[in-house]
Amino acid sequence: MSNGTREKWSGGIGFTLAAVGSAVGLGNMWRFSYMAAENGGAAFVILYVLLTLLVGLPVMLAELTLGRGAGRSPVQALIHYGGRAWAPLGGLFVLAGFVILAYYGVLAGWTVRYAVEAVVWGFPADAGAHFGAISEGHGAAAWHLAFMALTIFVVSGGVKNGIERVSLALMPVLGVLVVGLALYAATLDGAVDGYRYYFTTEFAAILNPDVLRDAAGQAFFSLSLGMGAILTYASYLSRERDLPREAVLIASSDFAVAFIAGLVVFPLVFALGLQEQVGASTLGALFVTLPQAFADMGGTGRVIGALFMVALAVGALTSAISLLEVVVASAIDTFAMPRVRAAWLLGGAIALLGLVAAYDIGMLDLMDKIGGNLLLVLGGFSLSIFAGWVLGPELLDEVHPDGRQRLALRLWLVMLRFVVPAILAVVLVYSAADAWSAVAARWFGEG
Q1: Partners of 41 in beta bridges
Q2: What is the C-alpha separation between 37 and 284, in angstroms, rounded?
Q3: What's the count of helices (H) and strands (E) in the chain, helices before strands?
Q4: DSSP 24-68
Q5: How many other C-beta atoms can be found within 10 angstroms of the C-beta atom of residue 173?
Q6: In the chain, domain spans
Q7: What pLDDT, in 10s, does the model give residues 341-380?
Q8: What is the CATH number of domain 16-443?
Q9: Which of 64, 280, 350, 352 is an S-S bond match for 234, by CB 3.0 to 4.6 Å?
């Protein structure tokens, strides 16, 4: 599909909110808090910020540049710049989006269910038993399918009437909810202890390869990098937008939500003495510890908890929309498939794959290690090689053809060529080892 007939954002604010919505999701309010709890508190936050600056921003700007320059989704964008030999890298982005959305839909289904139940009935007295009952089986599958149907419906509406309209409506709501919850959490008796835990730094953790791997995986998962989402959204962007500014705005907004979410989670946890349970499992902080806290708080907890879960559900939806759009846009560009057909056909296929995780929570964890860590890092590493070495100086002209910010852009090219691949190569080794350990433990009884 040519640039002349391709859909466009109606304005810059629509793109920005949609891109921020892609980045802001469960990765901010779910993964960030428990990873900080498990990986040295502020040490993880510091490492996350450094990786965002050194790796996340350069890769994001590369995705923005390639998407806008080609005016196409991942597979065709890579073919446009590098020829058919680089089509597999675009395919890797599509695969990552496909796999991640499959299990992400299950997590989002849980979140929407908690939000609905909190509004209608409140939180259960025994949050652990409740999560054990609803995390697998027919109920989990039904909520997963319902969430996927909503996501498909939005994407099938197109860029302006579907994605942009939803982003314009929901992202301001999400911002107000998160800030309001943080202000409330600051009034709790346990707020000071929660902040102290959040900001205490175990500097030794910064040198831990496992923490480096988790921080890099979190940065890529949270910023929607390595899966072609930012690239795809940029393919609908006009030439007038300042891409470095957009990259900084998206990354800073994403970090702000993640950081503020920690200001909500940790005061709540410490106020009710549940700090020992935060790091018990990757899902414990969000689906057991916090709901238990809300239940123990009575009527106030029901209101605050319902608002928190609604915020999560909004973030989950905007992120899921961007994941599905990568797959759908690729089908439209490559096979000239009508949008509605592509959305329902491919969205349905993703939903079917997600049923595996809905009926087996162990598979959800495995898919997260493969999709949420390994494929994203591999995609980012490969993209940095392509952008830095295959395109090289040609990439600079795509950002600012008039030569503006030339020195800063040359520094960016150096980062893509040397710094980003070096860091991601190390992370990739540990991510691959972690993914293999999970596969071996699952199917070969090893580990």
Answers
A1: 201
A2: 11
A3: 24, 0
A4: SSHIIIIIHHHHHHHTTBHHHHHHHHHHIIIIIHHHHHHHHHHHH
A5: 12
A6: 16-443
A7: 999 999 999 999 999 999 999 999 899 889 988 999 899 9
A8: 1.20.1740
A9: 64
Structure tokens at 401: 């053809």
Q: Is the Cβ–Cβ distance between 50 and 370 less than 8 Å?
A: no
Q: How far is CA 74 from CA 167, 220, 280, in A?
A: 22, 17, 38
DSSP 149-177: HHHHHHHHT-IIIIIIHHHHHHHHHHHHH
Give the per-residue pLDDT at 4: 45
Which residues are registered as beta bridge partners of 201? 41
Lowest-pLDDT choice from 5-9, 272-276, 326-330: 272-276
Cβ-Cβ contacts under 8 Å for 142 (sequence gap 6 or more): 109
- Contacts for 71 with CB less than 8 Å, ≥ 6 apart: 2, 3, 6, 235
Long-range contacts of 327-330 (CB under 8 A, 24+ apart): 327/94, 327/97, 327/98, 327/101, 328/155, 329/73, 329/232, 329/235, 330/73, 330/74, 330/75, 330/76, 330/90, 330/94, 330/228, 330/232
Residue-level pLDDT at 10: 92
Sorting pLDDT into bands at 50, 70 and 90, what band is 174? very high
Kindly state the DSSP code that residue 202 receives in the 8-state scheme: -
What is the C-alpha separation between 426 and 220, in angstroms, rounded? 15
What pLDDT shows up at residue 335?
96
Q: Which of 139-143, 258-262, 304-308 has the highest mean pLDDT?
A: 139-143
Q: How far is CA 129 from CA 32, 133, 273, in A?
A: 24, 6, 19
* 293 band by pLDDT with thresholds 50, 70 and 90: confident
Q: Which two tokens stand for residue 310?
A: 């609604």
pLDDT at 109 over 90: yes
